[in-house]
Write a structure and sequence with these properties.
rod-shaped; Thrombin, subunit H; single chain; alpha+beta; 12 strands
Length: 302
């Protein structure tokens, strides 16, 4: 019997509890109806009258309580405002830091572009000059890598085959001839400079019309020589040297006629030598180039 479970009946609410719940519901309903009635009367009644007098008296009676409640709540309101303003200040500070970083980045990009501006301006002047080859157009492009030492004679430019650059295209700066495109990729290209070993450019003296070949000087130092100039021919210090261009339509030269190369810096001769020793200082500053122009034919061969 002790182990057997006995099902207990659900407790029945006491009459007093049921009555209290009914009273509370009734009071709530009455208060809601009363509030609605007062609001309706207040809107429909004139601006003066007994109801408004009662409202004024009630406001006067409740005024001290309102003031006390306001004073009690003020510290909490101030604390909330402080925390809210602090959070807003932190968010604003974070936003300003991000904007400042973006402005610094934009300023650096603008400064980098401005540093290249003089070279681009010189390229434009060269392109608009009378000596620019008429059958070619220039693809102006920034230089992204430079010769890293005395034995490096190439640089990398920031455009490639997708921009129309192709292998064996002449490359110039605002000063004059830089070299030739030796390798091409979709978005970059390699340029071999005119002072690279075994390089040869057919050239002529613009003043005396003497022809020769531009080669790197055996002494190094970035200078060039005008080779194969016979001792009987005349070349003078200060003469400008330009590319000689094509003389046979079947065997076109890689460089069109008239591209400035450099200026004769010295002319020497020895009794035993067959040719003059003509030193040429290049117009282009091969060790410091920010932008170059790649010459491509206006009519591409198919």
């Amino acid at each position: 019997m002790l182990a057997s479970s006995v099902q207990r009946s659900k407790p029945t609410p006491r009459p007093s509890q049921a009555r209290n719940a009914l009273i509370r519901r009734t009071v709530v309903v009455v208060l809601v109806l009363l509030a609605l009635t007062l609001v309706t009367i207040s809107f429909r009644s004139p601006t003066a009258g007994a109801l408004h007098d009662m409202q004024g008296a009630g406001s006067t009676v409740l005024r001290p309580f309102q003031v006390a409640a306001t004073r009690v709540a003020q510290p909490f309101r101030d604390a909330y405002d402080y925390v809210d303003s602090l959070a807003n200040a932190r968010a604003e500070n974070k936003k300003l830091k991000r904007q400042n970083a973006d402005l610094r980045t934009s300023a650096l990009i603008a400064a980098a572009k401005l540093a290249k501006y003089p070279d681009y301006k010189k390229l434009l002047q060269l392109e608009q000059g009378q000596t620019f080859p008429a059958d070619f157009r220039a693809i102006n492009v920034g230089v992204i890598s430079f010769p890293s030492g005395p034995f490096t004679h190439t640089l990398t430019i920031a455009r490639g085959s997708t921009s129309g650059i192709r292998k064996s295209s002449p490359v110039v700066s605002g000063g004059g001839l830089v070299g030739i495109v030796s390798n091409v990729f979709p978005h970059t290209a390699i340029v071999t400079l005119i002072n690279a070993p075994n390089n040869f450019v057919a050239a002529r003296d613009l003043h005396t019309r003497v022809r020769g070949g531009i080669e790197p000087s055996p002494a190094g130092g970035g200078t060039l020589i005008l080779s194969e100039v016979a001792k009987q021919q005349r070349v003078e210090e200060g003469d400008a040297i330009v590319t000689d261009g094509t003389h046979n339509a079947r065997y076109r030269d890689l460089y069109p006629y008239g591209i400035p190369i450099g200026r004769v810096s010295s002319v020497g001769v020895t009794d035993t030598a067959t040719f003059l020793q003509v030193q040429v200082q290049p117009f282009a500053n091969l060790g410091s180039l920010d932008a170059v122009g790649v010459l491509v034919p206006k009519k591409q061969n198919r």
